[in-house]
Amino acid sequence: MRELLASGLVLLAAGSAVSAAAPDFTVMSAGQLLIGAGVGLSYSVAIAAVAEWTSPDERSRVLALVLLGPPAAWIVGMPLSGLVGDVSWRLVWVVVPLTSAVAALVVLVRRHSTPPAAARADLLAVLRYPGVVRWSIGELLAFSAWAGSLVFIGALFIESYGLSVAATGLLLGAGAVVYVPGNLLFRRWIDEHDRVLLVGLAFGAAATVVVLGAYRGRPRSVSLRTRCSRFWLEGGRWQEARTGSTSLPSCVFA
Amino acid sequence: MTGVRTAALQLGYFVGAAIGGIALAAGGYTSLGLAFAVLFVAGALPHLLPRGSRSPKPSLP
């Protein structure tokens, strides 16, 4: 587990270094591939490590803290990227992802290694369980919408409102802050209304991205409010998808 | 399930960026917003469809 997590972080650090030094778009793309592999590996192993490295009593508390990592990273990373990006886009790769990956590696090295798991997970076997494919397709589509809007929202702010890179980073960080209360607020309603919340929040997020795309050129506060609304809804949506009892295939709880 | 969800997340970055790029090139930010709205709604549809009769609580291996 520790070695896998370290591999993910090394890939992330290497990809960031390659991106920072990229002389052309091809090398930049190769760097992004490394980063993608590193993020995917470290994210999935980190979640699995919670189960292995914690006792049952502390597991849910530690998992909640771990799951707050991505929004916390947006809140810190996006404004920092914006501020550094005004100096040089190459420096962004060094200051944010490379430094963070190296810091995480330093923490990880201090931890003892654990033996490999006795049983191997079979992804195809998991997909054969009733409801898993349907649930996975829903997650893929929703993640695509979320990730896609995250990819393009910075360009929208810069091109539509003429914002600087620093201002855009600060704006994105401010929007990400709202993710946390959305996440915490909807948690209390999940047990009773999880499917209604999942569908309602998705429709709410759909409405906000339409407004973000269609009403450009209006006062920035409109877009900021819309963006905050979207993050708030998404915070609730991801919290619901993670823990909602009826939206997840029943095998998750077995 | 963690693996399945992480795969959906990582594939989502690719699919979202690809669809967004196509929509942006085709019709600007208005199309981009509409494309992502369609994806959000489509992502909710599996949860609106009626459940099959095969919905016991199986145990994963």
Notes on the protein architecture:
The complex is a heterodimer of chains A (254) and B (61). Chain A has helices at 2-21, 25-53, 56-67, 69-85, 89-109, 123-127, 132-161, 165-177, 179-187, 190-214, 220-243. With 254 residues, chain A is mainly alpha-helical. Chain A is globular and about 55 Å long. The model of chain A is unreliable at 243-254 (pLDDT under 50). With 61 residues, chain B is mainly alpha-helical. In chain B, 77% of the residues lie in helices and 0% in strands. The longest helix of chain B has 47 residues, at 2-48. Mean pLDDT of chain B is 78; it is low at 55-61. Chains A and B meet through helix 2, helix 6, helix 7 and helix 10 of A and helix 1 of B.
Largest interface: A-B, 63 and 50 residues
The profile of the biggest β sheet of chain A is: none
Terminal residue distance of chain B: 12 Å
Q: β content of chain A, as a range?
A: under 5%
Concise overview:
By secondary structure, chain A is an all-alpha fold. Chain A is built from 11 helices and no strands.
Record the SSE blueprint:
The complex is a heterodimer of chains A (254) and B (61).
Chain A: H1 2-21, H2 25-53, H3 56-67, H4 69-85, H5 89-109, H6 123-127, H7 132-161, H8 165-177, H9 179-187, H10 190-214, H11 220-243
Helix pairs in contact in A: 1-2, 1-5, 2-3, 4-5, 4-8, 7-8, 8-11, 9-11, 10-11
Chain B: H1 2-48
Name its key features.
heterodimer; A: 254 residues; mainly alpha; disordered C terminus; B: 61 residues; 77% helix
